[in-house]
Write a structure and sequence with these properties.
two-stranded antiparallel sheet; Butyryl-Coa Dehydrogenase, subunit A, domain 1; Butyryl-CoA Dehydrogenase, subunit A, domain 3; binds flavin-adenine dinucleotide; Butyryl-CoA Dehydrogenase, subunit A, domain 2; single chain
């Protein structure tokens, strides 16, 4: 393969429509032009490039797969390719767009009232309004059904009073609206049901302190949602969904985007390791001319190609309405594992330079440790697939 050739034996572009190719090229160009120049500094300083949010909107990255309300209405493969290019730059940037799109805009679009859609979706599509998704709590991570946050109806208008605490919430310190999942009692029943509430910035009793000290996802803002008897009008509850399937269906959308996104991180570390080892000479030869290096590059290359073909196949299934949540678990689990291993291998191939910020590989490696854990941990997806294969649940 000549030095300047596309370093992949399977060209994904050949599988794409003309429109999908255009989306892919323009997202890649945007990433190189607008994200790459400042991402390392943002990562080092622990800041998110807020100035790019309106441009994410213009590019159609916010709610990109949704129809109407100013959203781009991309098909699942085109949407996946945008996630890939955002995460080629940094998992934190992809996380911002994933949360806004799949975890806040999607549920408002799918389960919201007309008034909720009109109020939030157009502004969220342009990036004027920012959302966050509050499911995890200090004592409810992998087991979100054990959440303690609760909502109780009060007064003649049927307002809800919400108390609780959400933890590890991407974008919460920036958010205009927090989608908070809480338990409530309905219709005189003793059994609580989970409902989604749109809690708005400025409501009394709401605060969103930032979580400091992360050594991963440093170019993404993470925080808490603290709810101290927040009074929320009943019109702010999502009317179209109840139970754990509400948040889980959002997570399925987001995990699909992650399955594509991490391919971008894996491609970036592979391409950097390839060009570094072609340039770097030791023992009078480029490192890429040694068998051990070639074995590593071959493994990275083959795993990326297989992951991309899986994402593409599942994208087409999604387009036909045939993709199921377990397949999405498989995509998220295996592509994240692959990308994390690729980043570790690439880091070693760059030797000492591999730990330096300017080479980008260590940043991807640190970010992917979070991606391994959030949106369903690697272990929890293993158990879900294991249950499907064996018929035995091994969760508890
Ligand atoms: C940077 C970042 C951003 C995040 N953003 C959001 C967000 O926007 N919104 C949101 O709601 N949440 C968010 N999360 C939370 C994330 O989804 C949780 O961290 C994740 O669900 C795991 O929960 P936990 O951290 O409490 O770990 P735990 O559930 O305590 O798990 C700890 C370990 O135990 C393992 N484990 C748990 N149960 C079992 C079992 N039955 N069998 C075997 N092993 C098990 C897990 O796989 C894991 O390895 C974010 C997290 C991070 C780090």
């Amino acid at each position: 393969m000549p030095r300047e050739a596309t370093p992949y034996l399977v060209d994904l572009e050949e599988l794409l429509s003309e429109d999908e190719r255009i989306v892919w090229t323009s997202a890649r160009d945007f990433g190189k032009r607008r994200i790459a120049p400042s991402i390392e500094a943002h990562y080092e300083n622990g800041t998110f490039p807020k100035e790019l949010i309106p441009e994410f909107g213009e590019m159609g990255f916010l709610g990109g797969s949704l129809e109407g309300y100013g959203c781009a209405g991309m098909n699942p493969v085109a949407y996946g390719l945008t996630m890939l290019e955002l995460e080629r730059q940094d998992s934190g940037i992809r996380s911002f767009c994933s949360v806004q799109s799949a975890l806040v805009m999607y549920p408002i679009h799918a389960f919201g009232s007309d008034a909720q859609k009109e109020k939030w979706l157009p502004g969220m599509a342009t990036g004027e309004k920012i959302g966050c998704f509050g499911l995890t709590e200090p004592n409810a991570g992998s087991d979100p059904g054990s959440m303690r946050t609760h909502a109780k109806q009060d007064g003649p208008n049927g307002d809800y009073i919400i108390d609780g605490q959400k933890f590890w919430i991407t974008n919460s310190p920036l958010a205009d609206v927090c989608l908070v999942w809480a338990k409530t009692l309905e219709h005189g029943s003793d059994t609580p049901v989970i409902r989604g509430f749109l809690v708005e910035r400025g409501m009394k009793g709401l605060s969103t302190p930032e979580t400091k000290g992360k050594l991963s996802m440093r170019a993404s803002v993470t925080g808490e949602i603290v709810l101290d008897s927040v009074r929320v009008p009943k019109e702010n509850m999502l009317p179209g969904i109840s139970g754990l399937k509400g948040p889980l269906s959002c997570l399925t959308q987001a995990r699909y985007g992650i399955g594509w996104g991490v391919l971008g991180a894996a491609m970036d570390v592979y391409e950097r390791a390839r060009s570094y080892t072609l340039d770097r000479v030791q023992f009078d030869k480029p490192l890429a001319a040694f068998q051990l290096t070639q074995q590593k590059l071959t493994e990275l290359h083959n795993e990326i190609v297989k992951g991309a073909l899986l994402a593409f196949h599942f994208g087409r299934l999604k387009q036909d309405g045939k993709l199921n949540p377990l397949q999405v678990s498989m995509l998220k689990r295996d592509n994240v594992r692959m990308a994390l291993e690729a980043a570790r291998t690439a880091r070693s191939m760059l030797g000492g330079n591999g730990i330096m910020g300017e080479y980008g590989v260590m940043r991807h490696l640190c970010n992917l440790e979070t991606v391994f854990t959030y949106e369903g941990t690697h272990e929890v997806h293993t158990l879900a697939i294991g249950r499907a294969i064996t018929g035995h649940a091994a969760f508890a």
